[in-house]
Amino acid sequence: MKAEYRINKTKIALESGAMVKVPEINRVFDPAVVENIAEAGYSCVWIDMEHSHADFQDLSMMILAARTRDIDIFVRVPQGPYNQYIKTLELGASGLIWPHCKTADEAKALVNMTKYGPQGLRGMGGGRDSGYGFMAKPDYYDIANDNVLLGVMIEDVEGVENCEEIAAVDGIDLLFVGPGDLSQDYGVHREPGSPIAKPKVLAAYDRVGEACRANGKAMGTAVNPGDAMKLAIERGVTWLNCCADVDAITNGFTSGLAATEAIIESSQSGK
């Protein structure tokens, strides 16, 4: 049977200007979580390998689960040697999210490590993404270059100051504003309220959004539903990390406990 490359539907949607809703898996790295995310109606999922204990075996199993439900997986990778990026792609990830991008040169380095020539110098392997080497070449190189989504996180003041140059880098698809770290770099992280609502952070969204529009790139962020999400959308965000695994589990157990206690109290008071 001829191997076929899996098309990145999320990237196509993002390029068309559609709103992309992205749930995060940050701590519970089980394929069943991926399946439940698909069951809930999401078309993609974000896996955090920067802040977490997840390893490549965890990632491989979650990618397999995603493929059974035909949803895309995007991986926030830690900064490090190039082989951790190509390993992630060869396992079948739909794209990479690179943290703390501060300059255009850093963005160019990511492109160079993850795109095949002539766009870059990605190492040539034979992983899941290429049908273990059985996909026809050179077609595979072009398809892989077109399908992989590359995002860089703007979560430092230096990144905001250089966002125009970063957005102009060919091969970068998404500039993802990290409001938490960015608010800390601006020195406003201890102030009450959502970090997105802080004037300095809002100004950063305005500037990054303008850079994205000028260069045909998308802007993303992490924000729960509410007023802060409205502020982000008003500034041009189309990629929304809108919920996370731990929050979903905690909220589900909390609401279940509260509802059960209410029924018990009502039943006992009626005796």
Short description:
With 271 residues, this protein is of the alpha/beta class. It has twelve helices and eight strands. The protein is 46% helix and 16% strand.
* Contiguous runs where pLDDT drops below 50 for at least 5 residues: none
- Which value, in Å, is the CA radius of gyration? 20 Å
Q: SS-based structural class?
A: alpha/beta
| Percent of residues in beta strands | 15-25%
- H/E element string? HEHEHEHEHHEHHEHHEHEH
Averaging pLDDT over every residue, what do you get?
96
CATH secondary-structure class = Alpha Beta
Q: Which sheet architecture does the biggest sheet show?
A: 8 strands, parallel, barrel
The CATH superfamily appears as Phosphoenolpyruvate-binding domains
Strand order of the largest sheet: 1-2-3-4-5-6-7-8
List the helices and strands and how they pair.
Layout: H1 9-15, E1 20-25, H2 31-40, E2 44-48, H3 56-68, E3 72-76, H4 82-90, E4 95-98, H5 104-114, H6 139-147, E5 149-154, H7 157-161, H8 163-167, E6 174-177, H9 179-185, H10 199-215, E7 218-222, H11 227-234, E8 237-244, H12 245-269
Parallel strand pairs: 1-2, 1-8, 2-3, 3-4, 4-5, 5-6, 6-7, 7-8
Helix pairs in contact: 2-3
